[in-house]
Write a structure and sequence with these properties.
Helix 1 crosses helix 2 (about 40-50) and helix 3 packs antiparallel against helix 4 (about 85-105). It contains four helices and no strands. By secondary structure, it is mainly alpha-helical. The protein has helices at about 5-20, 40-50, 55-70, 85-105. It is globular, with a radius of gyration of 15 Å.
């Protein structure tokens, strides 16, 4: 696919999106901060490598935040962290959406 972004570029794009949502926009906020410690940066980068484009990466981030918050039982004010179950559930959904998208436009997702 000619417009393929690298996993590092997508990681930086999503991290920057998170940064601009912060009160202090000059402070970085790496995408990895959203996840529990058992989700490594390599796992996140592997997903982004498969998504290849901002359209899918942004949808992944939106859904991971939405689903992660919906499944939290937190009673304190600490930050919500995304666990493995939500991570893999959203990953599978986005990958199916991506395949369907490419089938609809008559291209291969590979």
């Amino acid at each position: 696919y000619p417009f393929r972004w690298s996993k590092g570029e997508l990681y930086d794009l999503l991290s920057d999106r998170l940064r601009v949502c912060r009160e202090n926009k000059s402070e970085s906020y790496p995408l990895l901060n959203l996840f529990e410690p058992d989700i490594s940066k390599d796992k996140v980068l592997d997903v982004l490598d498969k998504l290849r484009q901002p359209r899918f990466a942004l949808k992944f981030m939106y859904n991971i935040i939405r689903q992660g918050c919906a499944e939290q039982d937190k009673t304190d004010d600490g930050p919500v962290k995304i666990g493995l179950e939500v991570f893999y559930k959203v990953k599978a959904t986005i990958e199916r959406d991506m395949i369907e998208y490419y089938e609809n436009v008559g291209e291969s997702p590979d």
